[in-house]
Amino acid sequence: MVTFNILVTVALAYVVALFVIAFYADRSARRGGNKWLRSPLTYTLSLSVYCTAWTFYGAVGNAARSGLEYLTIYLGPTLVFLAFWVLLRKLVRIGRAERITSIADLISSRFGKSTGLAVLVTLLAVMGTTPYIALQLQSVALSFAAFAPEGTDVNATALWVAAGLALFTILFGTRNLDANERHHGVVTAIAVEAVVKLVALLAVGIFVVWGVSGGLADTLRIIEASPVAQWQPDAGRWVGMTFLSAAAVICLPRMFQVMVVENEDERHLTVASWAFPLYLLLISLFVLPIAAVGLAVLPEGANPDLFVLSLPLALDREMLAMLAFLGGFSSATSMVIVAAIALSTMVSNHIVLPLWLSLQGPRATVSGDVRGVMILSRRVSIGAVLALGYAYFRVTGGTAALASIGLVSFAGVAQIMPALLGGIYWRGATRRGALAGLVVGFAIWGYTLFVPAIGLLPASLMEAGPMGLSWLRPQALFGMGEMDPLVHSIFWSIALNSVAFVAVSLVTFPSPIERLQGAAFVHVYDRGGGGAGYVGGVAEAEDLLVMAQRLLGAREAQALFQGAASGQGKTGYLPDVSPEFVAVLERELAGSVGAATAHAMVRQIDGNASVSVQDLLAVADESAQMLEYSSQLEAKSKELEQTARQLRDANEKLTALSVQKDDFLSQVSHELRTPMTSIRSFSEFLMEGGLKAADRVRYSTIIQDESIRLTRLLDDLLDLSFLESGQVVLNAQVTALDEALGRAIASAGLGGLKVVRAPGGEGVMVHTDADRLSQVFINLISNARKYCDAAAPELVISVRRGGDHVDIDFVDNGAGIPRDQQSLIFEKFSRLSDHSSAGSAGLGLAICREVMARLGGTITYVPGQGGAAFRVSLPLGAVGQDMPPA
Amino acid sequence: MSQPVGPKAEHKPGRTTFLERRVYRRRRLIDAIKLLPVLGACLFLLPALILGDGSGSTALRLVYFFFMWIVLIALCAVLVRALPDDPDAPADASDPAERNEPREPAG
Predict the structure, then answer these.
(1) Tally of CB atoms within 10 A around B82
(2) For residue B7, what is the enclosing H or E element?
(3) Do A277 and B69 touch (CB under 8 A)?
(4) pLDDT over 70 (residue A737)
(5) Residues 6 or more apart from A545 whose CB is under 8 A from it?
(6) Mean pLDDT, residues A731-736 taken together
(7) Is residue A140 within 8 Å of residue A328, measured between CB atoms?
(8) pLDDT tens for residues A222-269?
């Protein structure tokens, strides 16, 4: 037989084990941490503070009373976690970016760091959580009583439990002040407790299904036969409670604490998104079987809220009962510890500290010992929260069923949801709107649910309404009496809360700081840092340092200031008090004392009452200037790039020219070398003597021919060089084109070539250098003579006037020039390979091109004319006068 | 005034029409993840709304809810595990060592 004393010993041993775990986890975290501490598994398990003693004992009670309805309490959170990508991820991101310390801090920070809102949400949280803590104390006390001999003082047990929990929470919950330095010890202990309660409930469940009923099928048969099967779903209650539990899992202070504040890494959420629903599934898996079997096995009148414990006890499974007891104990303690930490943070940051600051006078932040005050205030708050819970437990004394208190609490904290969701998704939500919504929702919840639930309203009022106004009856507002009281209350409170929130937000105008914070929250994914907390004023960096030291601790504050100073390019500990620096400092302080208090403290030093629109405009201007500067820089860099590209082009051109020059030199050398070689060889023959006269004449002739060719080549080169360098003097005169052509044909020497002059173009007078023009014509004609490979070579010369110029075409009937060489023929030494023997240096067309360029015209090759076709184009313009034929 | 000032606000990432295949897959996975709660709400709430007045079997309902529940959990687990790491996620400066470690299986 497990005696009461053994039970107490086991409970104490369990608590000691928790202390040890928390202690080592804290120490290991400070030394750099071990992997397990920061794993998504620990995060997921710590989320199980959702499952309190209400779940552990109450769910079975709930199932015994209303069948499957208990499932809604777990389906709601499952939906929320499935929606993690849209909702929880954003909450966690905001929580990290803004150094959020609690849900009250989140609401207050979003709506312009309002102290009023923070206080309101804190009060709501305390009111919603206190009954819940009382519930945990009651369940622990009852579970002790289940083992205890008759007459044991349940109240004393509850008091001891409350005191022990206060001690644990103070020890591990207030070790450090910066909420960003998370409570590793507590979180680890909570994770261990999560395992204990899951194992305990599963053990009882497995025992019931396979040990008592004899398998799954039998269990389902027992369920069908049991009174729990009489329950039929009520759509209103089903949807209402699912909604309620979904809202609660976001808004409950303890859930917010483990989910957002204690979150180590955003990626843990992706694991928790399915792992936490899995945990909930496992926790609720055996609830209905336990309820059904309990109802069947245990004597009539047994408290269904304690079936988890009394079932193994009644069947003489004492070790299992002990395990179940520890599971319930774990559920209760983990909830109380986290709730106490969350509430104490809120109470201390939003109520005690502002009060203390205002009592201390204007320079308190510089002269007072804030750090000490904060720790003390948090410890006292923890004690106060637990004392309040104990007092509530004593007053209500276990009158209400466990589950209904839980739902009342849920409905209370759910009032925060409209402001929370509106705050993170809607930039138009204002402080006054949030305030209005919270007050309305809170009031309706209190009137329709909370006060009736604790039995403070007289029956006459419940029946007839206040002052006989029946439409104001607490559980039948506006005559909606047929609704379930809980659904009725949720419906009216959330609906009117949302309406008030939206309506007031629409008609009011937010202050600048609200708008900044709103943008920072709603667009948290778009921005690196948090919202601005600009304070324009005359704060001294030294004053700020003194204050920060008192809040953050000397070393941390100095490191922060030093970092900021070096960021500004300064040395030492005192940075310029720029708006950015103040914003950063405020955010750091907010991590310790909450946004509203941090803002108020910085303002106190700063001496500036509020942020003006001018200040904000100044910030905006600064950004605009930066933007302009950066666009200037961009333009400059573009310019540089352009110049670089031009330089690169010029360089390429130079390189190409240099290559061209080298080619030219080597070709000139080659061309000079060939005639020189023959001259040298034949002059050697002549010098040797003994030659016949005929040979001598022949050799001399060769020498002379080669010399002439050499001279011509040099002449051409000189000519080209003069033309290219522009040193040629043109002797312009009015000439008849016909005459120039005639002269050219005459002097070119036709050989076998037949020249045909097409009609047209007679009488065209050009003002140009006739000799040079003739040179071009001669060149073209002699080219035709030399290269035209037709059997009966023929050259057609046609003249056509077109606008301000005249075109002279030279078309022969040869093979023409292959397409791939057409672009090369005007280059120097571009003699086509198969014509190399023709005795030309390949400078002719190059000279022609230069001459035409000097004369202001062009010479081009015209493809597709049935042979080689060149077009000489000459401007008439100012030089070319059209003269009447003589 | 109401728009955030700064170059970051003007060049919002992710406004391209054509995405790399991997990025496209990631976006569609996220779409699927976003739809999970809708599916969950349908599965959890509709039976109660539709069959509200009937006299259905409690045991049958129990099996239905737990089956759907486990299906949703499995679906969610598969989807989030298929999701590649977000390149935009803020690096956790407090613990550089953790980032290099493989994600631990949990549950």
Answers:
(1) 12
(2) helix B7-10
(3) yes
(4) yes
(5) A557, A558, A561, A573, A574
(6) 82
(7) yes
(8) 888 887 777 777 778 888 889 999 998 999 999 998 898 888 888 888
Nearest CA in chain A to B86: A267
Q: Which residues pair with A630 in a beta bridge?
A: none
- Give the residue on A whose Cα is nearest the Cα of B36: A82
User: Could B45 and A242 be called an inter-chain contact, meaning their C-beta atoms sit closer than 8 Å?
Assistant: yes
Strands (E), A770-868: 794-802, 805-812, 858-861
What pLDDT was estimated at residue A415? 92
Residue A609 Ramachandran class (φ > 0 left, ψ -120 to 50 alpha, else beta): alpha
How much is the pLDDT for A76?
92
Alpha-helical regions (H) of A526-574: 541-552, 554-567
d(CA A435, CA A655): 77
**Chain A residues in contact with B2 (beta carbon < 8 A):** 427, 515, 519
Domains of chain A: 4-430 (1.20.1730.10), 532-611 (no CATH), 628-725 (1.10.287.130), 733-875 (3.30.565.10)
Of B33, B48, B106, the CB nearest to A44: B106
ipTM exceeding the 0.95 mark: no
Contacts of B33 in chain A (CB under 8 A): 85
Q: Token pair for residue A232? A: 């039929």
> Chain B residue closest to A629 (CA)?
B7
Nearest Cα residue to A874 out of A736, A757, A743, A718: A736
Nearest by CB to B33, from A85, A235, A525: name it. Answer: A85
Residue A203 has pLDDT above 90, yes or no: yes
Summarize pLDDT for A480-502 with one digit per residue, the tens. 666 678 888 888 899 999 999 99
Rounded Cα distance, B77 and B89, in Å:
20
Could you give the CA distance from residue A736 to residue A724 in angstroms, rounded to a whole number? 27
pLDDT of residue A505: 92
* Chain B residues near residue A624 by CB distance under 8 angstroms: 5
Which tens digits make up the pLDDT trace of A547-583?
777 677 677 777 888 888 888 777 777 777 777 777 7
Composition of chain A by helix, strand, coil, percent to 5: 70, 5, 25
Q: What is the pLDDT of residue A812?
A: 87
- Comparing A98-107, A662-671, A687-696, B12-21, the range with the smallest average pLDDT is B12-21
